[in-house]
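ParA family protein: structure tokens wanted.
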Amino acid sequence: MPVIAVVNRKGGSGKSTFAAHVASWCAHQGLAVMLGDIDRQQSSRGWLRRRDASLPAIAPWVIDQKNVLRVPTGITHVVLDTPGGLHGFELSRIVMFADAIVMPVCPSVFDRESAAACLAELHTLPRVAKGQCKVAAVGMRVDNRTSGADTLRAWAKEANVEMIGVLRETQNYVRCLERGLTLFDVPKDKATIDLGQWESILQWLQPVMNPAPAPEVKREPILPVRKPSVLGARPLHETHRNSVLTESRSTILGGKPLNEAGRLAVVGGTQR
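Answer:
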């Protein structure tokens, strides 16, 4: 079950907006997806309540009899909207389950500094260091009239993280989210520019959400073990007894040497 976690310590960085769009994209691909909101503000859960039932389905958490959040039965893909201030044990626990972490980052210096500290901690965790959990950043709320996009790309290079896309500041996101929608739910001609900015992001997500099957291991056929015909499939203690008898018979054969008497072939316990 592929799991993508949207992580940033700083609040207001666009985590819920990004998580909702990734979940919506999965739903439009025909995937059974859950949007798991573990943020106290429950922004994603509120958005799901506004979402029309006629749209491609996105499931929330289910609560079992012990009041524990569970992934619903039948779900194949999970998107997690995480809270701000995530660090230490809580951050490492997310990494233990995630196949990829995407960090939305706004251009301001405060956002970049906070994201850099979070990335530094992520890079110390074993699953990230080994490449088992991929990490990438996405520029959020970037004003195209400024140098914000260039600033974020330079920051990403310094922070040693891949910048997989930059999303502009636009009211299209605001209007969609208010109605329980995303850009993937509206006609393409209504959001051509913005959908174009998602192409590089979705290209990076594709192998994570649709991993290639593990290669089949070719096994060599197991050959049956041949039974030595000279022993006639007799137990070891009988074979030992026959060898003793053969040695004693060598004296009856006129005192011939043992090696000559040993030419007697024993097949099935009979001599010839």
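DSSP finds eleven helices and ten strands in the chain. The first helix runs from residue 15 to 28.

Cheers.
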